[in-house]
Automatic annotation (TrEMBL):
Domain Tr-type G, chain residue ranges per copy: 125-351
Entries under PANTHER family matching the protein: TRANSLATION FACTOR
Keyword Metal-binding: no
Stretches the record annotates as Disordered: 1-123
Coiled-coil boundaries: none
Domain of life assignment: Eukaryota
One Pfam family matching this protein: GTP-eEF1A_C
Record's signal peptide: none
Gene source species: Iphiclides podalirius (scarce swallowtail)
Ranges of compositional bias, category Acidic residues: 89-104
Name of this protein: Tr-type G domain-containing protein
Keyword Amino-acid biosynthesis assigned: no
Length: 551
């Protein structure tokens, strides 16, 4: 690690010494394999600035060498091809650079030249974040692990090792989930606690898997996971008895689907899992029964079966229906696409690329500096830029960036990233803080008006009621200060008089006060930062959206 640190500081000096070569340096090793990258970039450094045009040559040579020694050959090949196809353009660009250099503000012009170069070494695929949700033991982690093994993200040896270890614990059907449930406690109990992360690529897109816990005591963790997702995969177990417990009142299937909708997931894929189970044996009857029971509920949440909802039969344990479609002899009645084909062909999501940068912090840790994790909700930023960490308005500089564990020099909307910052201690950050642009920092507030739908609550809710609010990645205690009016569900009309209380299934506009300052935006201005859930006693009570921020 220290070597890496040294490497970085050396790079930053290099940036100062010769601006010309630093683009070549970016192209060389992507910062992933620092040894080779360093060696390759050292060769043009020997001479003085003029011989820049030959720089792409070492780039073209060094990449194939890397692809042999690098553990994840697949992901490298794509990049190697890209880089091999582009030396000509790079050459021209470099010559342009040279002409710019003649001018005295060459140093200022270089950063403008950098962006296209960075994109060359990165995959150009669209980033999609997928969250796996559903009742405990429906098979979320196993499906995630199976997808990673099918797309070649976990190699065979690692899986064999997991299988061996699982067999020693007489848990052999769990070994796939261990690719995502990494810590000991999760493996011993077979339950996911934290949101696991992994990624895989298809021809068109780059997917990040967020594996949410299904257990009801970890719903707050699951909300944090769903807040980062664009696409939710609701895993339903078709096994007799398991489907029913997952879906009835106490089960997590309903709550998760609803939380996903509130968290702003654009598309829901319902996977009917465990179709290979002896009690199911790929029967169409059972599949239709599971589907017909859950469909009305998902419709009620506002998912539209024509547009943003799809059902598939799969088996996570055997991997049928995930990458390839299920073979005809096993399952003659379903001839639709497999899961990966389906999510690969979903229409692309509209991202806010041009707005100010916004990234809510999901998690943080110390690693030679403060590293924050999260999903970029809007805008883009690059290495060396200055950002604000709200709500405390701390000025920070970006030291290093990783998108899905690959070091990059700029990040854009929709990517799952880690950001290493200078200028703040790890203790001073908590999940729910937001990294944002200094020109247009995000709004912070303590008191705001919100429209709230009460989903389930036994008694009535009056002014003075308190609960925990989950908004993007933050969890904050709130109190209802006043009820302003009731909203008629059918007509949308507002009541003239102030209600004394609201009860289940009503919609009200209320003034809410938080215990501390939080980052939020009105729902109209930026939906992702303006929707929230209220929870109390381990239940989700209400969902709502911020209408306006009072102070």
């Amino acid at each position: 690690m220290s070597n890496n640190g040294a490497e970085d500081s050396w790079e930053s000096q290099a940036d100062v010494i010769g601006e010309q070569e630093s683009p070549a340096l970016n192209g060389c090793g992507d910062g992933r394999d620092s040894g080779d990258g360093g060696a390759a970039s050292a060769s043009p450094r020997v001479e003085e600035p003029p011989p820049v045009p030959p720089a792409p040559a070492p780039e073209a040579i060094s990449l194939p060498i890397l692809s042999d020694s690098s553990p994840t050959i697949d992901s490298w090949d794509a990049e190697a091809d890209d880089a091999l196809l582009t030396p000509e353009e790079n050459n021209e660009a470099d010559e342009d650079d040279m002409e710019l250099q003649e001018g005295e503000e060459g140093a200022k012009k270089i950063p403008k030249k950098k962006p296209p170069r960075v994109e060359d070494t990165r995959s150009k695929k669209e980033h999609v974040n997928v969250v796996f949700i559903g009742h405990v033991d429906a098979g979320k982690s196993t499906i995630g692990g199976q997808i990673m093994s099918l797309t070649g993200m976990v190699d065979k040896r690692t899986l064999e090792k997991y299988e061996r270890e699982a067999r020693e614990k007489s848990r052999e059907s769990w070994y796939l989930s261990w690719a995502l449930d990494t810590n000991q406690e999760e493996r011993d109990k077979g339950k996911t606690v934290e949101v696991g992360r992994a990624y895989f690529e298809t021809e068109k897109k780059h997917f990040t898997i967020l594996d949410a816990p299904g257990h009801k005591s970890f719903v707050p963790n699951m909300i944090g996971g769903a807040a980062q997702a664009d696409l939710a995969v609701l895993v339903i177990s078709a096994r007799k008895g398991e489907f029913e417990t997952g879906f009835d009142r106490g089960g997590q299937t309903r709550e998760h689907a609803m939380l996903a909708k509130t968290a702003g997931v654009k598309h829901l894929v319902a996977l009917v899992n465990k179709m290979d189970d002896p009690t199911v044996a790929w029967e169409e009857k059972r599949y239709n029964e599971c589907r017909d029971k859950i469909l009305p509920y998902l419709k009620k949440l506002g998912f539209n079966p024509a547009k943003d909802l799809s059902f598939l039969p799969v088996s996570g344990q055997t991997g049928q229906g995930l990458l390839e479609r299920v073979s005809e002899e096993i399952c003659p009645w379903y001839r639709g696409p497999s899961f990966i084909q389906l999510i690969d062909d979903l229409p692309s999501l509209n991202r806010k690329m041009d707005g100010p940068f916004i990234m809510p912090v999901v998690d943080k840790y110390k690693d030679m500096g403060t590293v924050l994790m999260g999903k970029v909700e809007a805008g883009s930023t690059r290495k060396g830029s200055t950002l604000f960490l709200m709500p405390n308005r701390v000025q920070v500089t970006v030291d290093q960036l990783w998108s899905d564990d690959i070091e990059v020099t700029s990040i854009g909307s929709g990517e799952n990233v880690k950001v290493k910052l200078k200028g703040i201690e790890e203790e001073d950050v908590s999940p729910g803080f937001v990294l944002c642009d200094t020109a247009e920092p995000i709004t912070t507030g303590r008191i705001f008006d919100a429209q709230v739908v009460i989903l389930e609550h036994k008694s009535i809710i009056c002014a003075g009621y308190s609960a925990v609010m989950h908004i993007h990645c933050a969890a904050e205690e709130i109190t209802v200060k006043a009820l302003i009016c009731l909203v008629d569900k059918k007509t949308g009309e507002k009541s003239k008089t102030r209600p004394r209380f609201v009860k289940q299934d009503q919609v009200a506009i209320m003034r809410v006060e938080c215990a501390g300052l939080i980052c939020l935006e009105p729902f109209k201005k930026f939906a992702q930062m303006g929707r929230f859930t209220l929870r109390d006693e381990n239940k989700t009570i209400a969902i709502g959206k911020v209408l306006k921020i009072i102070e």
